[in-house]
Every structure is written in structure tokens, then in C-alpha cells.
Amino acid sequence: MDAVDQTIEFFDGDGISLQGSIVLDLGCGDGIFALGLSRRAGIRRVIALDVVAVDQEFLKSLAEEHDVDVATGPFPEFATSMPDSIPLPDSSVDFVVAWSVFEHVGDPEVLLREIRRVLRPQGLLFVQIWPLYFSEHGSHLWPFFDAPFAQLRLEPDEIRAALGSKMEPALAEAMSDLYLSCNRITVDDLQGALLSAGFQIGKVELMHNAIHVPPELSHIPLSSLAISGVKLLAYPSI
């Protein structure tokens, strides 16, 4: 599970141990990330929340594909949450991890304030976003378009029509909804939301690679086009 490895390595790089901790996986999706966390680093308890209930039978089939034994070891505690609230008590978790979540959050600052509420005073927030909307792979459309920056070069109805020509209607609709759910957050937007919500950023890693800039996109800041993703650690301000 590459995402779990990357998350733990990001903490390990600063000598931060998750052993014996309570971790909240916010926006857990299909649950495989939370399951992987529960099997790693001696974590005592993993709470996994998403706005859609996790299909645990499907999760078990995914676990088999990734050679994860669900019969032994701790199992995540799955529950549903609202987009802007977390159903946990104040100061109840040691770490919050959000992997590929904040590009789909309607009001990042509101949710970040909730994260700050449930984090213990010495707790840490880990955020990963990839791909950022304005990058060449932004909006999760890149597997379906040969040319980069489809989300910036095509209108929504053109994207919907193109998706409809490439796949079954139900999948095309799901991918179109995923694309439309992207909030276009940039690294600077994320920084602003974190600071406004009462966090300080302790560590950041920007993901990037060489790109070719289409002439019609030359007016967009290079920091938006060229930064494809971000990982960071943030902690509550005093």
C-alpha cells in the first residue's frame, strides 16, 4: 500500500512515531488506506470517517488483492460524517490523516477547524493532495485524455461528452461528478485555510516535474500549473 508507506515515511522523516496512538483517517473512501494504517506502525486505534458508508465486504475483497489479512490484528472503526463536521469529542485523537481529500472539500477552513477541535493539543495533521486542480493531471481526468490539462482546455460539457464516448454511462457519470467536485484549491489556498483555522505548517513537500505549458494557459500562475501535489504536516497554534 504505497499511500500508507508514504504517510508513515513522512512522519518517520521527522522522527515522529505513531505507535500506541489514535489516528483519524478523514475521508477514508473505500477504507483500504485505513486498513493499511491499522496494520502498521503499532497504531492502537484507527477511526475512519467518510460522507459515504464504507462497504466493508468490498473492503475485504480489496484487502485480499493487497495481501492484507483482515482476520488478525486491529480493524478500523468505520463511521459516516457530514462534509463540515466530525462526530468525535474535543481533543480525542493524536493524529489526523487526509489522503487525497481536501481537493474535494467544499469549505476547507470549516473542516480544518473541526480537525483542530478533535486533535489533542500536541497532535498533528497530515494532508496529501494529488493531483492539484491546475496541474497537468488535475481533476482526475488524466487517465482518459491523451493531452494534459484537459480540465483547463475543455468546457464541462465537452468533458462530459468525451467521457461518455470512452466508457459505460454509469462510469462516465461518476467520473464527471468526481471532476466537478474538485474545488480548485492551490497550495497557497491550502496554506491560507490552515492558518485561518488555527494551524501552523511544520513541514511541506511539493510534488512537481517538468511540464510543457500550452499557449492558451500561459496566463495561469506557474506555481499553479507546475505544482502537481503537496504533502504537509501541520500542528495546532498555541
Detailed description of the structure:
With 238 residues, the chain is of the alpha/beta class. It has 2 domains: 186 residues, Rossmann fold; 34 residues, no CATH class. The chain is 34% helix and 22% strand. It is built from 9 helices and 7 strands, in the order H-E-H-E-H-E-E-H-E-H-H-H-H-E-H-E. A 7-stranded mixed beta sheet has the order 3-2-1-4-5-7-6, with helices on both faces. Helix 2 links the parallel strand 1 and strand 2. Helix 4 packs across helix 8 and helix 6 runs antiparallel to helix 7. It is globular and about 50 Å long. The two termini are 35 Å apart.
Distance between the termini: 35 Å
Rg (C-alpha, Å): 18 Å
The number of distinct helices, counting runs of at least 4 residues, comes to 9
* Form type: globular
| CATH level 1 class label of the largest domain | Alpha Beta
Helix content: 25-40%
SSE pattern, N- to C-terminal: HEHEHEEHEHHHHEHE
Number of domains: 2
CATH superfamily of the largest domain: Vaccinia Virus protein VP39
The CATH level-2 architecture of the largest domain is identified as 3-Layer(aba) Sandwich
